[in-house]
# Entry
Amino acid sequence: MKIVTWNVNGLRATVRNDFEAWLRLAENDIVCLQEVKVQEDLLTTNWFEGYVAFWNSAERGGYSGVATLVREELKVHGVTRGIGHPSDVEGRVLTVDFETFSLVNVYAPHSHRELTRVAEKVSFLEALDAFIAKKRVAGRPLVLVGDFNVAHTEIDLANPAPNRGNAGFLPEERSWVDRLLASGFVDAFRQFEPGGGHYTWWSMRSTVRARNIGWRLDYVFVEKTLRGDLVACRHLPDRTGSDHCPVEVELNVPEPADKADGIPRQPTPYQLARRSAGTGLVV
# Structure
């Protein structure tokens, strides 16, 4: 299964660019978008041919919001909007349950340059912790993706020394990632690339992206039970149209078994077609 996460920094502008052509060519099974800045309506519902779009839009127009696009052939078992936190009005978390795993699409608040939202950010992360713990009790392995607005370690930003104490590199933000990993998750990208120089966000200032002076703010976290099923996780920095780039993960998700007899279900025609193409789809 191919899942991509991307902070598009305004979906209307992205769609006017070449998003739909990219969507067709990329052939992702699930696409998680952050900072969509649009409401769900008749127009947006029909933007993405071949996908069903699930939305958690902000109450405030033109702000925040997430969306998860699921290929039509994939069966969705449930959708949860929000995490029971005041920030839910900003449309920051959307969870889609499949039979064998749950996918949590996250757009974490930014602490702001003047650090005016640090307390809100910490409160959000604590509420996200509680939500994750509750979801894990349900038994489905979790995959967390999105823009978490934090660079975890010094190799996750080009200039760590001058950014100590700045939003996105605060101890309380970085320690949240430590806690998440200690609780039984892995950073999928770091399973394949341990070195520095790999970022997902760059300032819009001239030449900054070309010189690769960036931050790694966008992640895929999977429970350790799925670590052996990771096939690849990569950044797509050549994909422009936003100040962030997409992050793509390939994951072998176990095929569901019939709960009555334990016999795997027969693959759908879509699954057979994907396998014949060499993708090994396993949902």
Q: What stands out?
A: The radius of gyration is 18 Å. The chain has six helices and 14 strands.
